[in-house]
Amino acid sequence: AIADVIRTCLGPQAMLKMLMDPTGGIVMTNDGNAILREITVQHPAGKSMIEIARTQDEEVGDGTTSVIVLAGEILATAEPFLEQGMHPTVIIRAYRQALEDIVEILEKTVSIELDPTDKNKLVEVVKSCVGTKFIGRWSELACQIAIDAVNTVLLEENGRKEIDIKRYAKVEKIPGGSIDESHVLRGVMVNKDVTHPKMKRLIKNPRIVLLDCPLEYKKGESQTNVEIMKDTDFTRILELEEEYIKKVCDEIIAVKPDVVFTEKGVSDLASHYLLKAGITAIRRVRKSDNNRIGRACGATVVNRTDELRDEDVGTGAGLFEIKKFGDEYFTFVTECKDPKACTIVLRGASKDVLNETERNLQDALHVARNLLIEPKLVP
């Protein structure tokens, strides 16, 4: 039954399914895994079928619909054998033997070696994955985006290839514009604005510092009480807090950065000191985004300002700028010399279009990654 539900999502005549989730939101997709995630199934066998799609999505990234349809057919062909009184374990053993034989034949005789440096061949393969999906009309663009992104995050160490799409190839969706305007940045984009309106919004060849500590008054780990005996004590406490912020800012200013990204907050006083020194500050950046910026421009995330050294400063980016799309500001760190992380900017008419485009692009990214890790094809 589950295979029949998503069989119409397969092939060039595939249609999108419109699903309504429990909260009343609408999901439009023809991605097998996305559909099965929304379906509530009571039967245990049905649940294990959905689990197959989830595993396929995590391991391979594409082919979720195909794997369910194939599993459904395998179960359907096993039914006549059960009616003949054959024991299920015998059928399972035969299927397992068939699987081993199929894998061996595919690897030794059928599969074709592919040259991972031949970009045209890679585009052709990825295009076959994208062709039946919603972004089939923009297949050329989607293939270029997928291959560029995967090549950017590719890391080779001691002959071992590592391509971490999940962590270092982030897809950012900006409503508006058309899908043709989607592209891969040679750098990172985050949905943030500067902490002070007078800070610079465009810096060429910036020196970037990444922090994982707050630039505000130090708060106690647990509840702290302060006993004030004289009226001057309160003023002294405020002075100490200000001195602490001044010290933290001076430690940052000492390494002469142009931009400071921190995962925590930035107080108004810290913004003031940094502004006076001509430094732009961005606060409350996600840890994952901070790591991506570090990979792109060569900076190291520092936990305490007194540990900041000159080698922790990232100088690999060519441009820092803040742009406005609609009502929101976006920070761009681009034109990186050798970025090992990237952001894929997706544009589209509506949220539904963007969500489906992202799902399709994730499939294309995984296909491109699999090709580079194991460059073999089955004709």
UniProtKB/TrEMBL annotation:
Localization: Cytoplasm
Source superkingdom: Eukaryota
Protein family (similarity comment): Belongs to the TCP-1 chaperonin family.
InterPro entries: Chap_CCT_gamma (IPR012719), Chaperone_TCP-1 (IPR017998), Chaperonin_TCP-1_CS (IPR002194), Cpn60/GroEL/TCP-1 (IPR002423), GroEL-like_apical_dom_sf (IPR027409), GROEL-like_equatorial_sf (IPR027413), TCP-1-like_intermed_sf (IPR027410)
GO MF, one annotated term: ATP hydrolysis activity
Major subcellular location class: cytoplasm
This protein's GO CC annotations: chaperonin-containing T-complex
Protein name in the entry: T-complex protein 1 subunit gamma
Membrane-crossing residue ranges in chain numbering: none
Organism the protein comes from: Bracon brevicornis
Residues spanning the signal sequence: none
Classification via PROSITE patterns: TCP1_1 (PS00750), TCP1_2 (PS00751), TCP1_3 (PS00995)
UniProt keyword terms in alphabetical order: ATP-binding, Chaperone, Cytoplasm, Nucleotide-binding
